[in-house]
Amino acid sequence: MSTKPRAKEDETNVATNRRARFDFDIEEVYEAGLVLLGSEVKSLRDGGTSMGDGYVLVRGRELWLTNVHIPEYRHANRHNHEPLRARKLLLHQREIDEIIEGLEAKGRACIAMRIYFKRGIAKVELGLGRGKKAHDRREDIKERDAKREMDRARRDRG
What we know:
The protein is α+β, with helices and mostly antiparallel strands. The protein has 4 helices and 7 strands; from the N terminus they run E-H-E-H-E-E-E-H-E-E-H. It is globular, with a radius of gyration of 19 Å.
């Protein structure tokens, strides 16, 4: 009996941290749920979220997402949320332990890479990695420019 291949899960991108891979050498990626208020979910669906400096803090044996700006929902009046409040991350305990162990290593950080909806549930993609030095960034730019030049030459030649 033949089965159809599963369709790609319905994911709607809300916000991405485009500088994450430029500023950090990402070694591991995790998917985490978020504990959100109703007005935050509605505001995420409206857009305008800023993730520029979003990172993960450890409090006890829990992980918290901080510095992610979810704007106030304009129709929520007095029951609105604080735009920069810390939000609890939902992960398996094994994953939490891996991230905490990774953060204890010198020079490593856990940053928010993107926020998206997966089957209607808000998720955040976390990247665990080391910060790049200026010379590392220059190397990445050189490699990207060289690849662009090779692609351009290959396209013009053919």
